[in-house]
Amino acid sequence: MFIDTHVHLDEFDNIEEILDRARGVGIKGFINVGYDIESSRFSLSLSSRYRDVYAIVGIHPHSASECTEEFLDWISSMKDDKKFLGIGEIGLDYYRNLSPKNIQLESFERQLSLAQDLALPVSLHIREGYKDAFNVLKRYRVSGVLHCYSGGLHFLEEALSFGFFIGFDGPVTFHNARELIEVVKECPLDRILLETDAPYLAPEPYRGRRNEPAYLIYIAEKIAEIKRVSLEELSRVTVENTRLCFPRYVP
Asked: Considering the domain boundaries, does residue 251 fall inside one?
């Protein structure tokens, strides 16, 4: 049994088919992650329809201007929903810079503050902004996951020192993923989460095509190979890691 701890099911028309195909290969849980107001509302709605789908809601740095007081109040009003696991994906993206840096930082801090107040974990999207992100995180008492980790060995120790879990996605299977493979080797097994980020970042042998949760098995196989553990052991540990990262998660 594996859990896809980061997926965007709102981007699929055939959700029933996608979920059934994943369940058929042993994916037994799905954490659907919001990135703007519309997808966040959809995420919570979807989690109410499927027993094995859970929700994370928040504003991605690309949509930082959507982080309004009204939206934050809505998140607060949902705090008692048992399928609501955390806040995300939030963070900083200096690679594309689709939002001005000052707006990204403001949105990031406001959502971190809310996560701290609600005692909820966060799913962080950080791309070429690790230094600023870690400087901000020092001011908050939050836990969670660094989604689709791209900070290399340079930032791994600091990431782990914050108590964060590290999310690995399809790129770990790529033929040119030498640095990422070294990160997996250095990352403790009990701090690893498995993600697809579907429909993005499809693993080998589907690289360049539309990703889906069923392909998580290829990521799991690669991680097990790198860490020299069985799939059964990887399953056991990563399921427990999911529970520790997202305490509301109940399979």
From this structure: no
